Amino acid sequence: MTAGSLLDIQTPSVATHCPYCALQCGIFLTPTAAGATVTPNALFPVNKGGLCIKGWSAAATLAHPERLTQPLIRSGAGVLTPVTWDVALAEIAERFRAVTAAFGPDAIGVFGGGSLTNEKAYLLGKFARVALGTANIDYNGRFCMSSAAAAVNRALGLDRGLPFPLEDLPHASVILLAGGNPAETMPPIMQYFEAQQQNGGRLIVADPRRTATAAWAGRHLRLQPGTDAALANGLLHVLIRDGLVDEAFVRERTENFEDARRTAMTYWPERVERITGIEEAAIVEVAHALGRAPRAMILTARGPEQQAQGVNNALAYINVALAIGAVGKPQSGFGTLTGQGNGQGGREHGQKADQLPGYRLIENAADRRHMAGVWDVPESAIPHAGKSAFELLDALGTEVHALLIMGSNPVVSAPDALRVQQRLASLNTLIVADFFRSETAEHADIVLPAAQWAEESGTMTNLEGRVILRRRAIAPPLGVRTDLEILSAIAATLGRGRWFQYADEAAVFDELKRATAGATADYSGITYARIEEEDGVFWPCQTAASPGTPRLFADRFPTPSGRARFHATPHGEIADVRDGEFPLLLTTGRVLAQYQSGTQTRHTPELQAVSAEPFAEIHPVTAAHAGVVEGDALLLTTRRGTATFKARLTRTIREDTVFVPFHWNGDQSANRLTHAALDPISRMPEFKVCTVRVERAPLESAS
Ligand code: SF4
Q1: Cβ atoms within 10 Å of 227's Cβ, excluding its own
Q2: pLDDT tens across 4-33, in order?
Q3: 166: Cβ below 6 Å to ligand 1?
Q4: What is the DSSP letter of 593?
Q5: How far does the centroid of ligand 1 lie from the alpha carbon of residue 604, in Å?
Q6: From ligand 1's centre to the CA of 481, what distance in Å?
Q7: Helix ranges restricted to H, 107-145
Q8: Among 59, 381, 530, 633, which residue has the least CB neighbours within 10 Å?
């Protein structure tokens, strides 16, 4: 019996999934008179009954009194005023037509999100290209997974966060986790690391902070933010020097090793110690542990990836995994821990400026022809590549004059947030579809009330590449529409309704399957029924008879040569300049009881009770230099802006580094401080490191 079928027999509950992170824990949602309650689904094979506080409290947003239930249009007096759907849709159509007439279709932008279901991500991409005819669509996942995605595509030929299921983790002898803190961000995953430890395996964590995960692991490499490539090159140096490279694997399954070797040989451990701050002996010990492990894994997360050299950093770690022959070997390998709920599927189905569904490429003639056939449009009508997420936001008011945002809150989540706010203010038209009046909605000209996770069905693809089904459990409040309904209605008002006739989400999924047929991320053998029967199906899955693909790369890599590719990955300096004025490093991240921009979690009383406000972690020695004691208001200043946080003194952070979580806005916005320098390949902003000055805040800030 599957996890989904059990509850249908016994309770009125619906088996569905948590709305938050990429673990996509299985839950039961039970409607009640006051809203709904959540209980864990012990039979779902990923979380096995585990949930974190975010999952337990996820129902709180559904019947929340601050839900948007009517469209709003900014009046002449500048106030967002309720209107009917007909009025809102007519206004959108008129404004889109006016902008297109004045500036062309690319002057309309579309900004999506990594929390949208596969169906919505697919439809948003189609809406941009077929209804609006704009090239300019991108999404907030560009701020999440794009560096890892670009790196694995280059090195391994296929981007799936984990190329193996979580059930492989307990069997790894050694796991190196770089820049991730799952003990806090997705606690149920720790059962896999605990099982690994019980099996005699080791977890090693590289992170500037001794996070909950690093403390649990017992082996912690406390590297300076922005030095991951140096660390990885140092590990490869020791592996080569001490004869721990898997020569047969390198010879038979890879190419270009010489480039990586030549670079790595300049990163001798003493030099790496000077760059990273990690003792030479520790570098040697970890390299030996990886090189001698029968089954080794290297996992990266946002720490190394959210940098202006994020692709280079991820490639450097992949070099290490390839050198020890771990990739494609059972219970071993390289993977990345996806962050957002549908961070995986969201990047596969056409929300990215340069991609079409199934990872098809928008500049590839055959891919364009395939999609033209599925969409029933001339190939020439499909726009070419548009601007990446930050470049799109930065072009607002100059090249892009109208923007539709769905499933994102960039006023809080984008880097250099004050600059983004100014850009949004310079738009002719900003339209936001959301279920709360998010900080971005507050800037909008038109706000559309959208359904939430439990109010519509759709598939998500979790961090393992397992396609799961989030089932509708309750009806949306009166006046609220699903994103499918919203996009179809706007398309109809623009005279493009013929391309957006869907009975329901399943009909969109059917079209998505045809769109991905024969592509890298092939979903064509997956059905809603199969997902329920099998507790998810791993892509690629080309036919109804295919079991799906839980494990990749066993025999060959999907590269032109069939081999994995090493890269030369020299360490580069961070984009910001560290000097007497800005002498420290700032790094940002998440806390257990908040999620991303906080639109949902800051509306959840149970989570607010745990984490109502942000803090700044600072080492006591650094705090003493600044004359700061525990609980003081700490003013952080970077070249972009200032923000104030309550000081939290801790020896778990490096003396040269300050940490703040990024879930808040206004004077507590971490992203007013962060740097928008972009990775040259992935266009990922440098969220994870910039230079900063700290001082006690003036008294009025502290009150
Ligand atoms: Fe939800 Fe992630 Fe927590 Fe699971 S770990 S309950 S998916 S937030």
Answers
A1: 26
A2: 433 343 458 999 999 999 999 999 999 988
A3: no
A4: T
A5: 15
A6: 26
A7: 118-126
A8: 381
